[in-house]
Amino acid sequence: xxxxxxxHRIRTFSAVCGVLLLAGSCVxxxxxxxxxxxxxxxxxxxxxxxxxxxxxxxxxxxxxxxGTAAENWLELEGLRFLMFTEGGAFLQDLSAIxxxxxxxEDEWNLYTVKATxxxxxxxxxxxxxxxxxFKLMVLANWPAEAVEGVIAAKxxxxxxxxxxxxxEMSPEFFPxxxxxxxxxxxxxxxxxxxSALAASDTGNYVDIGDVHMLRxxxxxEVLDNIADKDADGYPKVSEVxxxxxxxxxxxxxxxxxxxxxxxxxSYPAVPGFVDSEQGRQFRQQKYSTxxxxxxxxxxxxxxxxxxxxxxxxxxRVVIRQSAAxxxxxxxxxxxxxxxxxxxxxxxxxxxxxxxxxxxxxxSLGYTVCPWxxxxxxxxxxxxx
Length: 384
Prior knowledge:
Number of helices: 4
Helix content: under 10%
Number of domains: 2
Number of strands: 24
Shape: elongated
Oligomer: single chain
Strand content: 35-45%
Distance between the termini: 59 Å
Largest sheet: 6 strands, mixed
């Protein structure tokens, strides 16, 4: 008994963080700075979207496949918002004073964050009649020890990147609303008119753009496309396992660019390669989502992995011929080192799909799907 399998490198699935900022200036002079170098309160609101939804700035992402609710979910208590100067020097941590709420608890794809704080950096005379420029970093669903290491350092953006914070994925890991979220990272260069900030108030927010969140894991799906099934649905794929994988993910990728998918993997300082006799089981799922703007019904097997060389992955597929006990065949296979449509590396924030087409012969076919885009255009927010 053999298995025919078709591989797909499928479209990226991205998450988007929309950010708005409002600020006040000194009572002394609305277009000047405070004589003593102090700062007035600045009120900030963030819109965080973790899925391509109407009303966000992600609508034009070419080839995006939307995430499931569990893949979009953010653990609110663990969110971290760090602010830096234009050059990347640390300014302050907004996390403790930020108030975050979910706007959509069906899809978990839209969040609102508000915070009021003082920031003397915004009163720099160089910004008058120009743009206030700074960076905003967002950490979501990170393990506590990784967050503590970054916060304790209070270093520059470059110093934080050099820490190489990581996430060690347990064999049981699977995103689940209210329990476990996929670790994500975002960093945006912000530029907003100083005069607009000076004139803003709680009824006049200033839109400064989007932070595009990247999930630190890749998603792998296996679909049962076996034809000529009997009335009971046999033969059918009954189980899928990943036998070789990497268990450690770098939380901040190299050469991060806001709104651009990664083109190369960023590996941890300490590798976490696993070669298991039992493997890690895929979870069987059925759900409705959206692909290329159209409804898409998924019925298959899913797992998640940190970035890895494609040729290091190995899988096991079990096909049952009937309901009779023992009437099953399993097949172990590795991803070829070359000639596969997935490319040389499994990349974060991408979806990879395997189609099992027959149970009668081995045939590894490769198809490059046309949705593998790496750029994004950002339209303006629509008026509410």
